[in-house]
Specification:
Layout (H helix, E strand, L loop, with lengths): L4 H24 L1 H10 L5 H24 L3 H25 L11 H8 L10 H19 L7 H12 L1
Length: about 160
């Protein structure tokens, strides 16, 4: 699949920013995030904290790698998987009608949309499930693209080409 270089770059950076700042927001209030993970009732209590650490670490790491354009295909694959996990967890909450009032996904994007006058609910809903599926598809688009856009990976490839 051929996606123009600038479009791939833009998509990769936007997804990276979303993941990075979502992870940072969760890290700044980690105990509240771990409580939200527990409220989803998908994990034994002994796994809640370790899984919460993994989720936050994955978001921050994937956000950085996507933003700078390094290991884009691998990061895109993992980001796609992460967004699908979030979609499945949200769908599980909705289907089981669990009393979860905070999705644990609030970040700078939600604040920015609120600033623009677009109110975004943090209560799990089907639009969040759909949004995560769209984000997974965007991440998968990066994986399937023949070009990874402008970034560190392209720069390294060009330096190697000029040295040869």
């Amino acid at each position: 699949m051929t996606i123009p270089l600038l479009l791939v770059t833009f998509l990769r950076i936007i997804l990276g920013i979303i993941l990075f700042f979502a992870g940072i927001a969760k890290l700044t209030n980690f105990s509240a995030f771990a409580a939200v993970v527990a409220s989803y009732q998908m994990l034994p209590m002994v796994l809640v904290k370790p899984v919460s650490y993994v989720l936050v670490s994955a978001e921050i790491t994937l956000g950085i790698t996507l933003s700078i354009g390094y290991f884009s295909r691998g990061a895109g694959t993992l980001a796609s998987l992460l967004f699908l996990i979030f979609a499945a967890a949200l769908a599980n909450v909705l289907l089981q009608e669990l009393p979860v009032t905070d999705c644990g996904c609030a970040n700078f994007l939600f604040s920015f949309l609120d600033f623009l006058g677009l109110s975004v609910s943090t209560t799990p809903n089907w639009m969040m499930v759909f949004s995560n599926i769209v984000l997974a598809a965007g991440s998968f688009g990066i994986v399937c693209s023949s070009q990874q856009g402008y970034g560190l990976e392209l720069l390294i490839r060009q330096i190697r080409h000029y040295k040869a």
